[in-house]
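Could you join me in thinking about how sequence relates to backbone shape in a protein? To get us started, please write out a protein record for me. Would you write everything just below, so we can both look at the same thing?
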Amino acid sequence: MLGQLRKKFQGMSRYSDAVLAIGVVGLVMLLIIPLPAIILDTLLSLSIVMAVMALLLTIYIENALEFSAFPSLLLFLTLYRLGLNIASTRMILTKGDGGDIIRTFGGFVTQGNTVVGLILFILLTLINFIVVTKGAGRIAEVAARFTLDALPGKQMAVDADLSSGMISHEEAKKARETINAEAEFYGSMDGASKFVRGDAIAGLVITAVNIFGGFVVGMVVKKLSWHECWTTFTRLTVGDGLVSQIPALLISVGAGIIVTRASGGSLGKTLPKQFLNNPKVLSIAAGVLVILSLIPGMPTFVMFSIAATLFLYSYVLTREKGKEKKPYSAAAKEESVEKALIIHPVEVQLGIQLVGMGEELMRKIPEIRRQVASDLGVVIPSIHISDNLTIRPKNYLIKIKGVTTASGKGSTSVILQNHLTQVAEAHAYRLLNRQDVARMVDNAKKVDSAVVDELIPHKLNLGHILKVLQNLLKERLPIRDFVSILEVLADHVTKDKTPDPDLLTEYVRQGLSRGISEHLFGDAKQIYAITFDPKVEQMVVAARQKSDYGTKIALRPKTIEKINLALSSIVEKATGKNRDPVVLTSVSSRLCLRRLLETYMPELPVLSFAEVSTEIEVKSLGTITDEVLL
């Protein structure tokens, strides 16, 4: 029986659009056609139950988007109540009756005292208008503004996560839809809150007009006495006002709850968990209540009962939290020793005076990881933060895989955040591993399975690809377009030839030349370049030595020193004029010059002429002449 009933309701849901359209037409008919008392009672009952359901839904939903139809529902319920107000007014003024519900609210709820009912109605209206709707409207306005302001940043974060392989295309699509839905929801709530506020004002005005109209109709048209008009029309009008204001107040509270949702989880679970979770607060509150109960005339028994309940709950909560704490043991000590042996991929050690900065830095770590992922296409591992009593109180250390890579003196978390971002980007190649490459390959396979199947493992293994990516990252070039990198590798790798990662990196650079130019120069129209004399280039290329560990340049130390001194002089002059220099050379000698300079000037870009867009004007800063060979 219940199963059949459920199936019928499910079948009716197919006609929900038609029901909604009929409902809108019905709202219009309420304004025109007089209603019998039984139908008016039915519609008023629906108004109350829908308001209760809307309020309960706002309490039990996990997040606001689960009730994304709330702004539209708010509009319909507001129009519905106003339509009922007009229908009930017509019945009261023409028949002197408003149905059982209005009569009950006007008599039983007010205990037969019309003045008390009128005061209750005014209080409910003021509470709704001044307190609830005003606060909910302001919150909705601020939430809408901040949600719209954060929209571009959230979308960029999704794009960065997608490019770095943290999420799939389907997950990115869902994330974008959620972000857009959130913006639309809070924007709609900003407007819908005005309906709630207007409804409260309209209720007050309608009631005042009804009272005045009741006296006019009663005394002028029906020739009733002042007292008869008061007991008939005013009592029914007050009942009508209470019937409309109580659902309006429930809806206003629901609107306030849904726009103030700050975390996941239903309000019924999160509120008690956070509000009643501190034993000290409960004990102090109970103590205050005990002191108040000692004042003569206070309800001592009631206050003592509440205080005793709070003390008891505080005691139970303290015992439970005590059990959760792990007792000290030799096993715990052994575990702490083992934790000390763990080497974290990225670690920040803070001096004693910077320890308080750790919590703020922890909140900024996701932003740092997103920044690196957006710039380079690499997802760096979690960043571990700890204190170090052996360094100066205001100093900090940044370690990559247990090795101190950078240090500094921090005055604010912003300085430390910027430094950590720079270090993470400069050493991203050290953090990339085979597991990361495997994940990137899996994501690339969803986009272009053909190139992945052709390349891996028949032509290259993960180690070869890892080396190419590390070479790119070492020069701070992004690897976001991983599929294009695989395409270039597939074009230049053969089965019968041992892959040379350094040579493959040069092929990839040529294939991604436009992207490299855009990454390094952005929309700049000109760059400042340092070039090498062809004789110097030939000498460097001739000194190239290949081994299992990569390419090395075997030049005399004196020659290397002369080259670095000449280059440093030009770079120093350029930076003094706020110019960012780059080294420009031929395609064949770029790798060799990079290997020569990376030890002394790792941040100086070394590019081939093919990697610079033809739209960019190249201005010469100087040339390293063959005098360095003497």
